[in-house]
Amino acid sequence: MSSRRLEKLAQAIKEQVSTTILLHMRDPRVKNVTVTGVEVSPDVRSAKVLVSVLGTEKEQSLCMHGLESARGFLQAKVGDRIQTRYTPILSFKLDEGIKRSFEAARILKEIETTESGNETPDETGDEEPEH
To answer: Can you tell me the distance from the alpha carbon of 45 to that of 90, in angstroms, rounded to the nearest whole number?
Structure first.
């Protein structure tokens, strides 16, 4: 299958899984979830769904267990939406990218705050010139 078709299929799976989680899942463990991407295998028999979960590590773990428990339900919804010979078997992987972005932003803000609090008169240019 061409890479363009795989990308379109990945986008369709992402939309269907996102919508299903948002509107149809009733599992209390599955909350604060964002589907960030989908990687479809070249033979279209499997798809890795990348998810970001806001919360503590325990909440993330519970959410991942909830998603694994609902895998059959989610696969059925995907199978209803896409028209392929095989309905991809879904697997879920926690995407740490967003968490790392927030951590990097926090560190940069701390550095900025520290530097602005430690300015010397030489650095600000407020010092009067000597005669």
So the answer is: 9
The residues near 76 (Cβ < 8 Å, ≥ 6 apart) are: 87
119's tokens: 């300015």
- Is 0.90 surpassed by the pTM of this model? no
Q: Which amino acid is at 37?
A: G
H-type helices in 2-130, by residue range? 3-23, 57-69, 71-81, 97-117, 121-124
Q: Return the SS3 of 37.
A: strand
Residue 127 is predicted with a pLDDT of 53
Domains of the chain: 3-117 (3.30.300.20)
Phi first, then psi: give them for residue 50, nearest 5 degrees: -90, 125
Sign of CA dihedral 29, 98, 93, 11: positive
- Which residues have CB under 8 Å from 54's CB, separation 6+? 32, 34
Helix (H) or strand (E) holding 51: strand 46-53
- Please give the angle made by the CA atoms of 38, 95 and 3, to the nearest 5 degrees: 25
For the chain, 131 residues long, the average pLDDT of each consecutive 10-residue run is 88 95 93 94 94 91 95 92 87 85 83 75 52 52
